[in-house]
Amino acid sequence: MNNQLQILIQLSDLDTQLEELKNERIKNKEESLGFKVQAKETEIKKFRDSLRKRISSEMLNQYDRILKRYKMRAVAQVNDGVCYGCFMALPTSYVSELDRNNKIITCPNCGRILFWIE
Hints:
This protein is of the alpha+beta class. It has one domain (about 5-115): Helix Hairpins (Orthogonal Bundle), CATH 1.10.287. Helix content is about 55%, strand content about 10%. A four-stranded mixed sheet has the order 2-1-4-3. The longest helix has 20 residues, at about 5-20.
């Protein structure tokens, strides 16, 4: 799998975790269970920043635009030829491409960055 794509997937997961930590109800629940939410949030942000430095500025700009549009998920998995970001079937040319995880491909419908589980 393309190194940039792997980093984008990790970055997307971290952004989702950060968004969930911002939710006050979830934050209060986790703190009542003894979790150190603020420390975890700081740790995630540091790791997220280190990942962002490893991505090309062009790719990072594209990721940020998609993230701003969709709030939590800029990267979407493809399963059985369907983008799990918008749940639309992808064109056959996308699905049958052999090196699809070795380059950055976006969904023609929603624009999310796609990855396939092999």
